[in-house]
Design a protein that fits this description.
It is a single chain. By secondary structure, this protein is of the alpha/beta class. Helix content is 25%, strand content 22%. The protein is built from six helices and nine strands; from the N terminus they run βββαβαβαβαββααβ. It has helices at residues 39-49, 63-69, 87-99, 121-128, 157-163, 171-176; strands spanning 11-17, 33-34, 37-38, 55-59, 76-79, 108-113, 137-142, 145-153, 182-185. The strands form two sheets. The protein has a seven-stranded mixed β-sheet, sandwiched between helices. Strand 7 (137-142) and strand 8 (145-153) form a beta hairpin. Helix 3 (87-99) runs antiparallel to helix 5 (157-163).
């Protein structure tokens, strides 16, 4: 590895935490407990430990309760009133927030999902390290299958936002630009399960 200077790329964490947990009886995913704290706190800590100093968190379901019960100091909290439309609307809201944040513009966003506690700081660091320039596109892969986190260079935010609809998030954009995506194998350091159903709650500690 070449040596890194303190003025390396600025990679912001973008945590999508708006889901209502429809298959969990309507329990907002951000507030599910993991190791004694809300899942959203755990996910922010993972992004920070992986090198994202700036973290924007998109809230939707029970946003008021999440603000009250979760301790998220230093995070930019973004309310997505359209969260029920699916992940695409949250991705759009988060990228728009990053684009207008002012101050030191991030060079890329590292997108992660609140309901994947098996993905830790090692995977975040690996995917962040795939950054080359503001046109970067990279994603964690698990035994060759693309997953999260996903690194999106700032020059691509508008394109991703324009194609993010429904529950697809960035999927349509990533499919169109498959040839540009750097896949970063993370299956040895992370598990890419989602917390979607009551059975999945067994993954929480």
């Amino acid at each position: 590895m070449g040596h890194t200077t303190t003025d390396g790329p600025r990679i912001a964490g973008l945590l999508l935490a708006a889901g209502g947990g429809r298959r969990l009886g309507g329990r907002p995913k951000a507030l599910l407990e993991h190791r004694g704290r809300p899942l959203v706190e755990h996910a922010v800590a993972v992004l920070r430990a992986g090198g994202c100093e700036v973290v924007h968190v998109v809230l939707g379901a029970a946003a008021g309760a999440v603000r009250e019960r979760a301790s998220l100091p230093g995070c930019v909290l973004v309310d997505n009133p359209d969260w029920e439309e699916g992940m695409g609307s949250s991705l759009r809201a988060g990228l728009a927030s990053l684009a207008t944040a002012g101050g030191a513009d991030p060079d890329a966003a590292l997108v992660s999902l609140v309901d994947q506690p098996g993905i830790g700081a090692d995977a975040v660091r690996r995917v962040a390290a795939a950054y080359r320039d503001r046109g970067a596109l990279a994603a964690a892969s698990y035994d060759g299958r693309r997953g999260h986190p996903v690194l999106i260079g700032a020059d691509r935010w508008a394109g991703v936002g324009a194609s993010a609809e429904g529950d697809r998030g960035a999927r349509a954009y990533l499919r169109e630009h498959e040839a540009s995506i750097v896949l970063v194998e993370c299956g040895d350091v992370a598990e890419a399960y989602d917390i979607d159903t009551a059975e999945d709650l067994a993954h929480l500690e």
